[in-house]
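Entry 12.
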Amino acid sequence: METYVNATGLMWEHAEAASALIVFAEHRFYGESWPCGGEDAAMADCLNLLTHEQAMADYVQLLAAYKESLGATGTNDSPVIAFGGSYGGMLAAWMRMKYPVTIAGAIAASAPILGFPGLPFYEQNNGEAGCATYLYTSILDLSCLEYFSVGVLHDFFSSVLLMGSRASYWDVVTYDLTPAAGSNEACAPLLAQGFALIASQSASSEGRSSLESAFGLCTGTLTENDTDGYRLQVKMGL
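Predicted 3D structure (tokens):
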């Protein structure tokens, strides 16, 4: 949670302007927030409690208790705005929909709230044009596993088997973009070509200038430290 807090700025600026209080709450099953008496018991017997519905209910209960402790229980006197990005953005949007009395508004960044099989938006973008959605969704899913815990799930993630071999993070992401995982057959090859081109262009100053222009980055954003192309992908939010 500290990493996210230190990487954000929008809510700090708005909070100061509105004389608002910022509250960051740890998600259940993360950090030290383990139900059922602790990590071992939670992982063994209580994974059914790890749902976004439960997480949202936690936040609603926390807000009610915290506002009461501050003597700020009036909805009109102390409105709450939810902020979030990626999965956190999904939670922020869903909380506004599910708990409109508690959440007066939400700012949800990069939140694929419709990116689920069976929903019209997902099905309409389930072809070659949906490659970016597949990539984003796979990274989101795997990021949840990666940051979930340094214990049980981290060990599972590190040793996950893919097609009979030990898989790295990007092996799993790539697999998620193949026909075997439900993606269009052109998706993984096209993305691999694109990332290879980014890495190639990042190796020279002329190439980096070209990438800055192509992706709308400020002049000088990319430096010789971006020669592997990875930092560019991060800056682009891929």
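Annotation: The chain has two domains: 2-109, 120-201. The radius of gyration is 21 Å.
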